[in-house]
């Protein structure tokens, strides 16, 4: 049971290793893009390529789907970023339970956006955890945890791809220990739990009152989605790369500071932030020197 790109490597390795995948369960196709045409989720695309049997229930906790799943009689559910909280009735169906792969070192960063929030909060390490599922939000007993460093240049996209591969490998390790009857579980310390809430488009707006040291990882954590952005007049400017500058600032936060012709430095609540890649009204992602050749931002201008 899974939906986005993060779940695809795990599906791939389960198939490669010869596990009997009775059904692949994913969310329904959703409208995307300007044309609002229904687009199949990545797990569906991979399942069809592998010629696997597919289910796309609109309401996975409905009586109808619970009965349908019970008739399949699965030994085990593997759940990875499926996008629904599963009921006790679902979790009680498989003989061996349900195993989840989560993109954090639990109990930190429970919830739907652990990769982004780990970067935004300036963490230097995260990882993946497999666990036996219960009816809570990522609250089940932990099985195997594998750490992964967060590199200085990591965005949510680059870290996502490494954790997806690490998650697939950790899942195989977990299933092998389950088969060997050597798998051990550890209860989470709920007092140490933190939550990584779902990000919305407006969450990417830059608060220039924050320090430059905070904003740099914020921009990386928001890349590629929802994207870190600010406004100049009515124009939305999307920021992709930046670096904090340790210099005394007296200008109000959001003010563009005087600098070389090919650089863009903005005052923050503490320090200044140099912007390296930006996307403006043209819709093209540009190096800052190329951007400034076609878009004027005079010193003293305020970004909001």
Could you explain the architecture of this structure?
The radius of gyration is 22 Å and the shape is elongated. α1 (8-16) runs parallel beside α6 (156-180). β12 and β13 form a beta hairpin. The longest helix has 25 residues, at 156-180. It is 26% helix and 22% strand. The strands form four sheets. Strands 9, 10, 11, 12, 13 and 14 form a six-stranded antiparallel beta sheet that branches. The chain has helices at 8-16, 42-49, 63-72, 88-91, 114-120, 156-180, 212-221, 288-294; strands spanning 24-25, 30-32, 37-39, 54-55, 77-79, 98-102, 125-132, 142-149, 228-232, 235-245, 256-257, 264-267, 272-279, 285-287. With 304 residues, it is of the alpha+beta class. It folds into two domains: 5-192, Formyl transferase, N-terminal domain (Rossmann fold, 3-Layer(aba) Sandwich), CATH 3.40.50; 201-294, Roll (Methionyl-tRNA Fmet Formyltransferase, Chain A, domain 2).
Main attributes of the structure:
6-stranded antiparallel beta sheet, 304 residues, 4-stranded mixed beta sheet, single chain, 2 domains, Rossmann fold, alpha+beta, Methionyl-tRNA Fmet Formyltransferase, Chain A, domain 2
Please tally the helical runs, counting DSSP H or I stretches of 4 or more residues: 8
Give the CATH topology of the largest domain: Rossmann fold
State mean pLDDT (0 to 100 scale).
Answer: 97
Q: How far apart are the termini?
A: 42 Å
CATH level-1 class of the largest domain: Alpha Beta
Fraction of residues in helices?
25-40%
Low-confidence stretches: none
For the record, what is the CATH homologous superfamily label of the largest domain? Formyl transferase, N-terminal domain
CATH architecture of the largest domain: 3-Layer(aba) Sandwich
Range of strand content: 15-25%
* Number of domains as seen in the coordinates: 2
Instruction: State the order of secondary-structure elements, H for helix, E for strand.
Output: HEEEHEHEHEHEEHHEEEEEEH
Shape: elongated
The major sheet is characterized as: 6 strands, antiparallel
Total DSSP E strands:
14
User: Which structural class fits the helix and strand makeup?
Assistant: alpha+beta
Radius of gyration: 22 Å
């Amino acid at each position: 049971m899974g939906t986005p790109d993060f779940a695809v490597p795990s599906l791939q390795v389960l198939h490669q290793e010869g596990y009997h995948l009775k059904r692949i369960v994913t969310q329904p196709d959703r409208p995307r893009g300007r044309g609002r045409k229904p687009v199949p989720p990545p797990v569906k695309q991979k399942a069809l390529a592998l010629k696997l049997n597919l289910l796309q229930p609109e309401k996975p906790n409905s009586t109808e789907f619970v009965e349908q799943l019970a008739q399949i009689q699965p030994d085990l559910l593997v759940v990875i970023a499926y996008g629904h909280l599963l009921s006790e009735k679902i979790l009680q169906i498989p003989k061996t339970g349900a195993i989840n792969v989560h993109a954090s070192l639990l109990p930190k960063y429970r919830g739907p956006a652990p990769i982004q929030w780990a970067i935004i909060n300036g963490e230097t390490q995260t990882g993946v955890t497999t666990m036996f599922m219960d009816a809570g939000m990522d609250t089940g007993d932990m099985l195997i945890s594998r750490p992964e460093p967060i590199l200085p240049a990591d965005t949510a996209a680059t870290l996502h791809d490494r954790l997806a591969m690490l998650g697939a490998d950790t899942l195989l390790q977990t299933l092998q220990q389950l088969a060997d009857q050597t798998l051990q579980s550890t209860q989470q310390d709920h007092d140490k739990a933190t939550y990584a809430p779902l990000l919305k488009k407006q969450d990417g707006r830059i608060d220039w009152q924050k320090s430059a040291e905070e904003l740099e990882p914020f921009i990386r954590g928001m890349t590629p989605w929802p994207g870190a952005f600010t406004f100049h007049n009515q124009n939305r400017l999307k920021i992709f790369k930046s670096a904090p500058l340790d210099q005394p600032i007296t200008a109000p936060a959001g003010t563009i500071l005087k600098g070389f012709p090919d650089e863009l430095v903005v005052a923050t609540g503490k320090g200044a932030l140099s912007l390296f890649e930006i996307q403006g009204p043209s819709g093209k992602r540009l190096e800052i020197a190329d951007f400034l050749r076609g878009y004027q931002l005079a010193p003293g201008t305020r970004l909001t």
